[in-house]
UniProtKB/TrEMBL annotation, chain A:
Domain ABC transporter, first and last residues per copy: 2-235
Organism: Bradyrhizobium campsiandrae
Similarity field: Belongs to the ABC transporter superfamily.
Cited Pfam families: ABC_tran
Alphabetical keyword list: Amino-acid transport, ATP-binding, Nucleotide-binding, Transport
SUPFAM superfamilies for this protein: P-loop containing nucleoside triphosphate hydrolases
Gene3D superfamilies reported for this sequence: P-loop containing nucleotide triphosphate hydrolases (3.40.50.300)
Database matches in PANTHER family: HIGH-AFFINITY BRANCHED-CHAIN AMINO ACID TRANSPORT ATP-BINDING PROTEIN LIVF
Name of the protein in question: ABC transporter ATP-binding protein
Single GO term (MF): ATP binding
ATP-binding listed as a keyword: yes
CDD domains, A to Z: ABC_TM1139_LivF_branched
Role: Involved in beta-(1-->2)glucan export. Transmembrane domains (TMD) form a pore in the inner membrane and the ATP-binding domain (NBD) is responsible for energy generation.
UniProtKB/TrEMBL annotation, chain B:
Keywords: Amino-acid transport, Cell membrane, Membrane, Transmembrane, Transmembrane helix, Transport
Family as reported in the entry's similarity comment: Belongs to the binding-protein-dependent transport system permease family. LivHM subfamily.
Transmembrane intervals: 6-30, 42-63, 69-88, 109-137, 157-180, 212-232, 244-265, 277-298
Cell compartment(s), UniProt: Cell membrane
Top-level taxonomy: Bacteria, Pseudomonadati, Pseudomonadota, Alphaproteobacteria, Hyphomicrobiales
Organism: Bradyrhizobium campsiandrae
Keyword Hydrolase included in the entry's annotation: no
Entries under InterPro entries matching the protein: ABC_transp_permease, BCAA_transport_permease
Domain of life of the native organism: Bacteria
Pfam families tied to this protein: BPD_transp_2
Protein name: Branched-chain amino acid ABC transporter permease
Membrane topology note: Multi-pass membrane protein
Length: 235, 311
């Protein structure tokens, strides 16, 4: 569904991504793990068009994504749940979700989507009229996920949904994501620093270090790898 | 006492129009974070547009002297909105929105110089095209008043034109509030203001949202300008006199708050009219800024300054 080939990108002259190739098949749950500064967020921003690549190709559903203007990419079915949540603080929870549903499919499926989102993330229903900026980090993260789901995406990209959250909150959000995936069969691309949890639930994983894919494979391969065990799993 | 009530009434009437004028600028600043120094001159264009629509384009002939001016004023709004749309498309968009990433100081230096340049061109272009003679949109209502009262032997006189100006301003404010809070376009404008990057992730075209805000802001201020012109004569440099009031109103209301800008403008109108009770008229503007500084001293974020900062 999403195919990234030989992608290079960076800010001014400093390269952050170097010849990165990643494949996400329809219905797959793919995790990208790696340390801070490995280029994970830059990779997502390049997919969404906020960062312009210096080389390489991205195709989504057979469409050359780099030829599509950034705001149009959401309309193709890519939902980006950004790092640091980035909800709209002065909009209410409901209005944030409506912004997620700006795409044609989001508008069409609004009623069924909102019902399912409220079922998966009940806190959003309780707080539907609250301003997003006044919610806790965990609640904002759930709103960011709900906002992504409201667009009826084909691909949900999650950038470190556990960042800055208490471990128990992060666990809860992970559990919700796995449940959402189990029920919806949605294709997901996850970037995470909580490597053990990410690899456990993903079908396929990539290890990104200093802008390079240093390792890839299904979760058994990755978890059996000595370097991964030492560097990320603490074994 | 009678003088006080009379000044209060006058302040409320003019304050509503100032409020609308400030909202036009506040919308542009709130959504785009662009400091538009030319906004007073867009208002001047709005005044002349209303003037020529009324006198030369047949509005006077069709609607007469009483209703005609207000029809012309309301028509000037869309005209200036279209003008603003093209100014944004051809000029402002090059130094704002998604293009600022590559510019120094997030494009603010370029924005200042560009809008100052536009201001100079509009002022001097106006002088060439319209001449330096004072113009005004007079209606028979401008020189007649409704008498309120008498209550306890006191009556308050409300100038008819200014009263209608106020009603038109309030109606526009209500329409705009509904647009901003209820419609998809309004919500996407607020989302683009809150977080342009996240708005792009939602599929909102931030540059188009900016263009909409700029056009709306110009149209609204043009209508406010036309309303002012029913009582105050104007000339091509009139924008300079008002742009300072606009900025004071926007800052008073709280940078970024659209409703706040209205109350900021209202405050300025009230202070301006009330100050005439104790100060000579020449000191009206001094009074405005004394009160302005006082309010900002105690409440630096303005009346409706955001409690939640952008992430």
């Amino acid at each position: 569904m999403l195919r990234i080939e030989g992608l290079s990108a960076g800010y001014s002259a400093k390269p952050v991504l170097n010849d990165v190739s990643i494949d996400v098949g329809a219905g797959q749950f793919v995790a990208i793990v790696g340390p801070n500064g490995a280029g994970k967020t830059t990779l997502f921003k390049t997919i969404s068009g906020i960062v312009k690549p210096s080389g390489g190709k991205i195709t989504f559903d057979g469409v050359d994504l780099l030829a599509v203007p950034p705001p149009q990419r959401a309309h193709l079915g890519i939902a980006h749940v950004p790092e640091g949540r980035q909800v709209f603080p002065s909009l209410t929870v409901m209005e944030n979700l409506e912004m997620g549903a700006m795409t044609e499919s989001g508008r069409r499926d609004w009623r069924t989507n909102i019902e399912r989102i409220f079922e998966w993330l009940p806190v959003l229903k309780e707080r539907r009229d609250q301003f997003a900026g006044t919610m806790s980090g965990g609640q904002q993260q759930m709103l960011a996920i709900g906002r992504g789901l409201a667009s009826s995406p084909k691909l949900l990209m999650l950038d470190e949904p556990s960042m800055g959250l208490a471990p128990s909150t992060a666990d809860f959000i992970f559990e919700r994501l796995i449940e959402i995936r189990r029920q919806s069969g949605l294709t997901m691309l996850l970037v995470e620093q909580r490597v053990a949890e990410a690899l456990e639930s993903a079908d396929h994983g990539y290890v990104l270090e200093a802008g390079h894919v240093v390792l890839e494979g299904n979760n058994d391969t990755l978890r059996a790898d000595d370097r991964v065990r030492k560097a990320y799993l603490g074994m | 006492m009678e003088g006080f009530l009379q000044a209060l009434a006058a302040g409320l009437l003019i304050g509503a129009v100032y409020g609308l004028m400030c909202v036009g600028l506040g919308l542009i600043f709130g959504v785009m974070r662009v400091i538009n120094f030319a906004h007073g001159d867009f208002m001047m264009l709005g005044m002349y547009t209303a003037f020529y629509l009324f006198t030369a384009a047949g509005v006077q002939a069709v609607f007469g002297n009483t209703v005609g001016p207000f029809v012309a004023i309301l028509l000037a709004g869309p005209v200036l909105a279209v003008f603003g749309y093209f100014v944004h498309r051809t000029l402002i968009s090059h130094v704002s929105g998604t293009r600022t990433a590559s510019l120094e100081g997030e494009g603010h230096y370029a924005q200042l110089i560009l809008t100052l340049g536009i201001a100079l061109i509009l002022q001097n272009g106006g002088l060439i095209v319209f001449g330096s003679v004072l113009a005004s949109i007079r209606t028979p209502l401008s020189s007649s008043a409704w008498e309120l009262g008498p209550f306890f032997d006191m009556s308050i006189f409300l100038n008819k034109a200014r009263s209608i100006d106020m009603l038109v301003s309030l109606a526009m404010m209500i329409l705009l509030s509904l647009l901003i809070t209820r419609t998809r376009i309004g919500k996407s404008l607020r989302a683009a203001a809150d977080n342009p990057t996240a708005a792009t992730y939602m599929g909102i075209d931030v540059d188009r949202a900016h263009r909409t805000a700029f056009a709306l802001g110009c149209g609204i201020t043009a209508i406010a300008g036309g309303l002012l012109a029913t009582n105050y004569p104007f000339h091509p440099f009139v924008g300079l006199e008002y742009v300072i009031v606009m900025y004071a109103g926007v800052v008073l209301g709280g940078m970024g708050s659209i409703i706040g800008a209205f109350w900021g403008g209202m405050t300025i109108g009230l202070v301006q009219q009330m100050s005439t009770l104790i100060l000579p008229t020449q000191l009206q503007n001094a009074a405005i800024f004394a009160v302005f500084l006082l309010i900002i001293f105690f409440r630096p974020q303005g009346f409706f300054g955001r409690m939640v900062e952008r992430t």
